[in-house]
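Q: How do we represent a protein-ligand complex in a form that can be generated token by token?
A: Start from the inputs.
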Amino acid sequence: MFAFLRRKKYRLGKRIVIIENRSKAIKFRIKRIRKIIIEIFQAEPIFSKFPRLVIILWDTDMKQVASAFNPDIIYVNVAAVTHGGTLFDTRSDTAIYDELKPTMIHEMVHLVHYSRNKGLMMYKERYTRQVLGDIVRLMKTKSFETTIEQSSKSLRTTLNVFLSKIWMEGAARFLQNLYVGRLKFDEDNFRRLHAAAESLVRQAGLAFELINEALAKNVLIDTNALNKFLQKAEAHLAGFAISESYVIGEHIFFSIRYFDSNIDDDNLLDMHIYDIVRKYERLMLKNGYLPVLSLYSGSGIFDYKRNILTLAHFLKKAQQN
Ligand SMILES: [Zn+2]
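Then emit the structure tokens for the protein with zinc ion bound:
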């Protein structure tokens, strides 16, 4: 079976957009999606950041729109867009446009972010490699037995993954909502986003609070139980990194722009997460608000250094045990 017109090239001013069809959807549905995608491209300035962009239409079980580390490819999941077909045919172009636009912008922000920010790529690569290293080690030892040192290192890695997700997904969600007109820089939005992030950060921080409690109570039992305790803390934090980093990050990026109008979107995408968090902390404190996150100052609800120290104390105590 030949997919309908496999590759189609569009010239939009000086830019080139290539839409490659790998979906099995019928011809007129593909044609319609292609038309809507081109409309989104023409309406949204972020898509003109690259001189050449490839859109791949495919069918998958995964999310509706995705991007890989390839610098210029966005994947649109036709199966998810059409929901099987009939309903899709009765929906208006505007409805489909409005559904696709935010997620396409989100993925485009990721691509722009990766292409502009070498630090982000290095950071992500480093921690992905560590996570993969853990998996390989598990496979080699052919058991889920790990030492308490390994569990502690693994929790530290997850803490960094948490930061990297706040960095990437926070930027993407913030700019996505900004570009579709859902975010005005007013106090209502600031308070709403701050409250949402605060509640999530408190829950994420439970991972370390439990460790602190255990230390305070001196309930250090056998190594096996301690190890399980660390693994549980890691699983808790990993869950937050995967699903809640978007909202925490959105608040951080929003607050920087809200309190400092000299910073533009490109500046935000060029900054390293350490500079982002430090700038955020300073701006929040200066304006009389409690930062949800801090690196080394101890001022935030979730302080990176405080958590690292908690973990180090726990490990030391466990080793003496
Ligand atoms: Zn994303």
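The longest strand covers residues 15-21. The mean pLDDT is 89.
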